[in-house]
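Notes continue from the previous slide.

Worked example: a multi-chain complex. Inputs as given:
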Amino acid sequence: MPQIFPPNANAFAKWAILGGGAFFVALIVALPIYARTMNNAVGVPVAQPVAFAHNLHTAQLGIDCRYCHTTVEVAASASVPPTETCMTCHSQVRVGAPQLAAVAASWATDTPIAWNRVHDLPDFAYFNHSAHVNNGVGCSSCHGRIDQMAGIWKNEPLSMGWCMDCHREPERFLRPRSEVFNMAYEPPFDNRPLGLELVAQYGISHEKLYQCSVCHR
Amino acid sequence: MRPQRRSVPLRAVGVLALVLVLASCGRNMAEQPSARAFEASPFFADGSVQQRLLEGTVSRERGGIDASYFSGQDADGLMRDLPFDLTLEVVQRGKERYDIYCSVCHGYTGEGDGMIVQRGFPQPSSFQQQRLLDAPVGYYVGVITNGFGRMFPYASRVPPEDRWAIAAYVKALQLSQNASVDDVPDAALRDLGDSTPTSEGSVRR
């Protein structure tokens, strides 16, 4: 019976085992890196049942974030406005526009509009808007220039590492309370002197901020 | 003699059972069954976690507070005074809230020329009208709570304390629009520095 495998098949088998192992290790390392850095949906627009445009309503019409996200200063959730808020204006403005058909239908049938979530932390992590907004962290530090977005997308990965970047050194990002809702705020070139002043003024405790139990409770 | 040897398979069975039990809790901790704000839920008929208050719900937090706190009207008609002290902080809070919730239509000075009106919303009357200059502070609280004609009520968006603060600010706004140099206190006038008041009441630099 002739030999099926030539002698150099031994080397092939050896390299296949070594290469396979290396490939396996690379896969284990690369997949989580990919999942954490590339596959976090940053900058990917999310489709919504109504083509609501933040740039039109905030930058052009000058509506404050709090007109619609009413609980952002007092609660954990910023809240997404009910149809009643849209109808405050759209009962008179652009009535019958096809772009607003879903809003009118929601109002007529008394069923909420099913907006798709854009920012969604896993349930084991706790987040609170009021704690940030009242302590000098601006909307744009976490959500980017929402006032220039025609669609809606995440501007930051919202990973634990990203939260910790700020929780370890909040003085790098803090701004005066009066600038929190100012989307166009330009921080000074070196934010630390102002930041440290604000940390003291707002009574922010460095020791507390990086405890696991702040976010995992 | 203790049955040492039999306990090994027993323990193995125990461990295996534990593994099976734990494996059955294969729920993803990222999506826990508890309800979070604004989630969808098959539990309620409208499919939303966020439920409306039932008609006639009485707030325990605000229990015992007079109805006039919300309507701006008591047994003697429209109220002329705030139910709490009028301080500078209240008026400043009122300005902030007015600019957020009202200025888009009524304009920053109350003329009724806000951006949404410029884009086609019906124009409200100017707050400088004699009828509205005469209206007491309670009138404004009532309008915010109940709405007015084509203006929707703001009861679900503006809490009652803020309604009073806004109403106080609107009254201040009306005063400010009809003020002359004589109304400026001497101390504040000095802060204006070298700017000299002219006879028409405007300030020239």
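Summary box: The interface with chain A takes residues 29-32, 34, 36-38, 40, 46-48, 50, 99-101, 104, 115-116, 119-122, 150, 152, 156-157 of chain B (CB under 8 Å). Residues 84-179 of chain B form a domain with the Cytochrome Bc1 Complex; Chain D, domain 2 fold (CATH 1.10.760.10).
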